[in-house]
């Protein structure tokens, strides 16, 4: 999306949309994020390594024109079967580190995963976009 002529009159958060490239206000590291979804109060976005993040809209600044987003290629997991050992990627990696085993498919690109060696009967419902195949070792 290109910046409107009257952009200086509108808060940035009102013209950021899906696919926009943004920086985090106040950070000088040059990290670029691509907006995946615009929620009422925050943005769901990914960095160049494929990790997903959430950020308050007011903390986002549009990247200058000509900024390039160099997404690292990662193999897409399209299907897992019960018993498949995986690790999580993106924001799920931060919330639930370690190895998990698929216990059920849910369709629509989602599955249920339990921690390998148990976790008190708990399980996660996770989108396959946040899953990487792993070995049981």
Helices and strands in order, then pairings?
Elements: E1 21-24, E2 33-38, E3 42-46, E4 52-56, E5 60-62, E6 85-88, H1 90-95, E7 99-107, E8 110-115, E9 124-127, E10 131-133
Antiparallel strand pairs: 1-2, 1-5, 2-3, 3-4, 6-7, 6-10, 7-8, 8-9
Q: How many helices? A: 1
Number of domains: 2
Strand content: 35-45%
Output mean pLDDT. 80
Which sequence of SSEs, written as H and E, runs from N to C? EEEEEEHEEEE
Give the terminus-to-terminus CA distance: 46 Å
Helix share bin:
under 10%
For the biggest β-sheet, the strand order reads 4-3-2-1-5
CATH C-level of the largest domain: Mainly Beta
Shape: elongated
Which class do the helix and strand fractions yield? mainly beta
Biggest beta sheet attributes: 5 strands, antiparallel
| Gyration radius over CA | 18 Å
CATH architecture of the largest domain: Roll
Low-confidence stretches: 6-10
In CATH terms, what is the fold-level topology of the largest domain? SH3 type barrels
What descriptors fit this protein?
mainly beta; SH3 type barrels; 36% strand; 137 residues; 4% helix; single chain; 2 domains
Characterize this entry briefly.
The protein is mostly beta strands and 137 residues long.
């Amino acid at each position: 999306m290109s910046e409107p002529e009257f952009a200086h009159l509108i808060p940035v958060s009102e013209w950021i949309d899906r696919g926009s490239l943004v920086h985090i206000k106040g950070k000088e590291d040059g990290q670029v994020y691509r907006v995946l979804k615009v929620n009422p109060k925050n943005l769901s976005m990914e960095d160049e390594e494929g990790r997903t993040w959430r950020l308050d809209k007011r903390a986002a600044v549009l990247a200058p024109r000509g900024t390039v987003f160099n997404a690292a290629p990662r193999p897409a997991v399209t299907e897992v079967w019960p018993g498949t050992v995986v690790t999580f990627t993106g924001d799920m990696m931060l919330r639930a580190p370690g190895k998990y085993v698929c216990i059920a498919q849910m369709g629509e690109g989602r599955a249920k995963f339990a921690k390998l060696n148990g976790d008190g009967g708990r399980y996660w419902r996770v989108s396959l976009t946040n899953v990487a195949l792993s070995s049981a070792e």
